[in-house]
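Lecture notes, continued. The same structure-token format from the folding unit now serves as the input rather than the output. Read the line below as a description of shape only.
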């Protein structure tokens, strides 16, 4: 009798331990791969050598984007040079995987111990909506998962994980990363070559008094427009987003997943127009630090179409 009870107890204990180990393993794996990708998983593939097609927007081929391998590597080179030390100070080693030959139209971030990874795929770089500004925004977004601060994605236990959520990563791209990335360029010349939205020009010039900052704001908006057209294509949306028509949605709880197309473009523009200096860091626990916050700031705050204060 006692032997039978002891055997049952040992069996139950073994099952419980196995379940705990399995759950711990699942949680650990999940913690490393919390980010869904720059865009949701999709079946679009763009191989090396593809010809740009802009049929979805009825635009002339002369305005088509799509990066060369040289441009792909140049953007990553600059990003690594600017941000390697930031990753180190935050406790991780930056590792950018340059997957030029991969046809995947996406990008992603993950952490494996102190190895903080950014995966940049050639399929995304070759998409006709992607310009240098758009590709720079994508890598800045993926950096934002590592460095973008609060709000964080919830982990299995309801606490905060290592990863800044999608909206926070979008906001970080415009608020901090792109300003540093484009600071080395002749942005007056780059803006002159682009088709800039009139509202963007007006808002950037009104929000900033120094010409350098105005131009950085405008340049970042070009990146936001580029990736918004990518979202539009992947979602088969009939009309492009508009800077002057922000998403009116007000969420009732924080949205950690990818916001809608207009909402994401609004977020990039909000980051670009926030007056807080690029040198002021964000916080992993307090979303107010290093950013614009309502009600004291009327412009540059995180859009309520994904953000719940």
């Amino acid at each position: 009798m006692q032997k039978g009870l002891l055997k049952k107890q040992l069996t139950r204990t073994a099952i419980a331990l196995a379940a705990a180990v399995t759950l711990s393993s699942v949680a650990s794996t999940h913690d490393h791969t919390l980010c869904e990708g720059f865009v949701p998983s999709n079946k679009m593939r763009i191989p090396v050598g593809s010809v740009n097609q802009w049929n979805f927007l009825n635009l002339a081929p002369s305005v088509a984007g799509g990066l060369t391998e040289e441009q792909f590597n140049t953007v990553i080179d600059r990003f690594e040079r600017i941000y390697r030390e930031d990753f180190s100070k935050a406790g991780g080693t930056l590792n950018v995987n340059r997957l030029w030959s991969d046809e995947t139209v996406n990008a992603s971030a993950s952490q494996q111990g102190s190895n903080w990874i950014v995966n940049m795929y050639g399929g995304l770089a070759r998409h006709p909506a992607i310009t240098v500004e758009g590709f720079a925004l994508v890598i800045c977004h993926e950096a934002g998962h590592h460095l973008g601060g609060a709000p964080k994605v919830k982990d299995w236990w309801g606490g905060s994980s290592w990863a800044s959520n999608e909206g926070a990563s979008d906001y970080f791209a415009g608020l901090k990363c792109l300003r540093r990335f484009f600071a080395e360029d002749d942005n007056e010349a780059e803006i002159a070559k682009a088709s800039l939205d009139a509202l963007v020009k007006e808002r950037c010039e009104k929000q900033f008094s120094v010409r350098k900052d105005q131009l950085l704001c405008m340049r970042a908006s070009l990146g936001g427009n580029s990736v918004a057209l990518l979202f539009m294509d992947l979602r088969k949306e009939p009309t492009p987003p508009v800077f002057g028509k922000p998403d009116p949605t007000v969420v009732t709880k924080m949205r950690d997943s990818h916001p809608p197309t207009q909402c994401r473009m609004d977020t990039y523009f909000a980051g670009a127009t926030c007056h807080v200096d690029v040198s002021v860091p964000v916080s992993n626990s307090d979303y107010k630090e290093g950013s614009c916050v309502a009600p004291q700031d009327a412009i540059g705050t995180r859009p309520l179409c994904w953000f719940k204060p």
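Point for the exam: Residues 33-273 form one domain.
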